[in-house]
Amino acid sequence: MSWHEISITGSKSEVDTVTSALEKQGALAVTYKDGEDNPIFEPSPQEVNLWDKVVTTGLFPIDCDLEEITLYLNKICPTCFISYQPLVDKNWTTAWLEHFKPQKFGNSLWVCPTQSLEAPDACFEGTVVALDPGLAFGTGQHPTTKLCLEWLASNKLDDKAIIDFGCGTSILAISALKLGAMIAYGIDHDDQAILSSQMNAEKNALNADQLKLYTSVDPAIPACELIVANILMNPLLSLAPILADLCLPGGTILLSGLLETQADGILDCYKAWFDFKPYCVDNGWILLVGTKRPLIA
């Protein structure tokens, strides 16, 4: 089956009117995207921010009356720009594989979609992490995840305990385990992330004693030698005392999910506990690597 996408570009003050008009004409779904290039990085909890210019798109059955719908929308939204295009059906469950290819980090760490590992000519030397993201964040394609994976692949992890805070798919925790870490604790408040992490652990022959998953900080989680938190600036600021407590003296903390312009704010917040090396940069995104100072008797 195929559909029509009808898109209306206008100001954010017109979004409610546009949405109502699309729904009255029988839209099966309505989505929004930035009409210019003004990303919104960190809205507050429960806050829905829209861009100044918004493209509102309605999904309609292929046999809808485009002329009638367009006439109605022009009447309701005379100042908006209207466009439409057909949307050809495809296997959306696997469509993401077009963009998720095997990736190499460091000298020998590979992150691969499971389908690529099943190919007859599949041949990956080194440590291989099989990963399918599901609805969770983390495939290794974003610069912040890349930076964390490069660090993990380039450092000795043998027998270490790791905490992956905001684990998403658990790509970082699973990679650390496959690279020699003894145990990993994944923390994420999103149930979809926990489900995705469990599935990815199974794909990599890891059991629940190796990757322990939690939806919040739990007393059962001990302080560890390595903390990885690839989230965003505001959560990193509010979580600073908790992450510091979870890191053993002499341990390492990796902080990412940050733009280069946000480095100073994070460094100022964490300097009470950690000494940081010069940060790594990838396309404007950074990784901060700190060592927790020993406790003073």
UniProtKB/TrEMBL annotation:
Keywords: Cytoplasm, Methyltransferase, Ribonucleoprotein, Ribosomal protein, S-adenosyl-L-methionine, Transferase. It comes from the Bacteria. Its EC number is 2.1.1.-. S-adenosyl-L-methionine binds at residues 145, 166, 188, 230. It catalyses: L-lysyl-[protein] + 3 S-adenosyl-L-methionine = N(6),N(6),N(6)-trimethyl-L-lysyl-[protein] + 3 S-adenosyl-L-homocysteine + 3 H(+). GO terms for biological process: methylation. It is found in: Cytoplasm. GO terms for molecular function: protein-lysine N-methyltransferase activity. Its main location: cytoplasm. One of its GO terms (cellular component) is cytosol. InterPro entries: Ribosomal_L11_MeTrfase_PrmA (IPR050078), Ribosomal_PrmA_MeTrfase (IPR004498), SAM-dependent_MTases_sf (IPR029063). Belongs to the methyltransferase superfamily. PrmA family. Methylates ribosomal protein L11. HAMAP family: Methyltr_PrmA. This is Ribosomal protein L11 methyltransferase. The gene is prmA.
